[in-house]
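#onboarding

Welcome to the new folks! Below is a worked example of what a typical request in this channel looks like: someone posts a single protein sequence, and someone else replies with the predicted structure as tokens. Don't worry about understanding the tokens yet, we'll cover that in week two.

Example request:
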Amino acid sequence: MKIIESKTIYKDGEYPAFPNLAKLHNGQIICAFRHALDRQKQYGRHTHVDPTAKDVFIVSPDGGNTFDPDLHVILDDEMSEQDPCVNVLSDGRILVTYFRWQLVPIGKGPETWGKENFEFEGRSLHGLYDCYVYGTSWSISDDNGATWRHMPVIRDPNIPEAACVRGNIVEMPDGTLLLPYYGSLAPKELSRIGLMRSTDRGESWQYFSEMAYDGDGFRTFVEPFLYLTESGRLVCLIRTQSDYNKKGLSFDDTYLNLHITVSEDGGKTFGPVEEIPSVYASNPFHALRLQSGRVLVTYGYRRAPFGMRAKLCNAELTDLNEAEEIILRDDAATGDVGYPNAIQLDNGDILVAYYFNNADHLRSIEVTRLRED
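Example response:
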């Protein structure tokens, strides 16, 4: 894999993060991300929850070479928007999934969401707000992103109310859509991952199956990415951590290696969770099938030297552990980087988008252009 260049496609002095690239049916390439104020100027530190956070996208007028700086809003309401993941279906419909944090005045969290719930999964922000995950929702566009229908929060008794999404939707050969989620079903329970399913082109979603849960209370499974192989296997790449609610343990110290689980029956059931020892799981993963048939797996790397990494794997991802690790970037200022997403252009070049922390400590959306040898 040859690295052609790395460059910034969006930077305005605020806090853009969690990008997602997509090729639309009208030929446009867009990059969606979450945009919020840079709070280090005001409070001396960053946070991934903010009342100004909204989901937006920028457009490339020239096939991914450059992106216009104008922000097109997908969702902007009274909540903190997170992680817009863009999915272009075979008929051109665009589904953007996301989750949101609800914010109330400081001290109101326990009475709003329940004392036990808030103590387990809530947080307080800047001495101003109490925050809690409101749940997963999605928006639909049938006109290449010109207008959006914003859909309700997904509520199902088998899906955590505070469920989150990061990975993209899988469109199965029969048109069924599968969307992985993560979250805890009960207070003090570690996060599990599961699948929800849509049989109506994303108009509604229902619980489908459980993918992974550690009942022993050691591993918490978050931010899954689901990949459909050429043979029809579903391979789920899982960011995995130990219990990050334990006292005295720094968040970074909870990072474990990549874990995977595989379904051989279209997502109805999944096999045992397997650790991939050679891949450090401090970030969510993305897998892209290339024109060659091989699969590019990308991920952020939050150990020094901080940056972005990748593996070029076979069509079934059976060599994830053995494939050579490729360093895309190792020049980030801190570990607040990553959340990659990649597309392949018509000319065969690959664009990997991610957010980055430069020497000036301002966040930006950047891309690395790759080419297969």
